[in-house]
Amino acid sequence: xxxxxxxxxxxxxxxxxxxxxxxxxxxxxxxxxxxxxxxxxxxxxxxxxxxxxxxxxxxxxxxxxxxxxxxxxxxxxxxxxxxxxxxxxxxxxxxxxxxxxxxxxxxxxxxxxxxxxxxxxxxxxxxxxxxxxxxxxxxxxxxxxxxxxxxxxxxxxxxxxxxxxxxxxxxxxxxxxxxxxxxxxxxxxxxxxxxxxxxxxxxxxxxxxxxxxxxxxxxxxxxxxxxxxxxxxxxxxxxxxxxxxxxxxxxxxxxxxxxxxxxxxxxxxxxxxxxxxxxxxxxxxxxxxxxxxxxxxxxxxxxxxxxxxxx
Length: 311
What we know:
single chain, alpha/beta, globular
C-alpha cells in the first residue's frame, strides 16, 4: 500500500503594495477552499505570501518596515486562514515576514510555518541563505535588500513527521544551495516545501537573464533527485510593483521530473497526488546515504566558506 498525499501548490499573482492584509489573506483562503474541493490534504503558499515582496524597494523608516512583519502567527492578520483550515481539515504551509524576540532582542526573519489539518503549528523555518545586499543600488531597476531587512535564520534545517511522511522546509534562495537539500535528506525528508519570489531578470548579471527559468528548475530538480524527495516549489508570479516575478510554480518527483506546473502568472492552484513511497527506490538505491556517503572527504563543506584553490 502506497502513501498517497494530494498537495496543492498555491501560486500567488502580484500583490499590490497598497493591498490590505485582509484582501491578501482572502486570496489565500479562496485557494485553500479550492484545494479542499479538489481533494488536497495540504496546500502550500509562497514566500512572504501576505504582502508585496518589500525587499524590492528601499524602506528607510523602521516603523514603516515593521508594518510588513507579523509579530505573531497565528495572529489578528492570519487567524482566519487557520480557522478555515481547521474547518476544512486541510493543512497548509505559509511564508511570512516574522518579527520575533530572541534572547531579549527584536529580530526580523523571513519565515514559514507548517500547519496541520487541525490548525495547529507543526514546525517553523527561518530563511538561512539570504540573497542580495544591505545597501541600496540606485542604478538598479529594483532592489534586493534581504540582507538589510532580515536576520539570518536561527532554527536550522529541521524535519517533522507530518502528513504521513517526513517533511522539511526551506525558502527561496535556500533552494539554490545543495547543502539545504542534503541536510534535509540526512534528516529523512521525503517532502520538501518552499516558496520563492524570483524576478525574471537579474540586474547584476544580465547575461544570465535567459537562464533564470532553467536555473529555477535545475536547483529544485537536482535537489529532489539527489535526495530522493518530493519538492513543492511555490512562486509569486507576474508583474508586482514594476518587478516581473518568474512564477513557474511546480511539483517535482523524487526522480527529478516535473510532474505538475503552473500555466499562468496569476493566483493558481497546481494539484498533484504524491506517492511518498516513490522516494524509497532513490533513498535505498543510488543515494543510499549509509552505504555510499564518504564523510571523511567532506571536511571543507563545514570548515570553510570561501573557495581555496591550490597554491
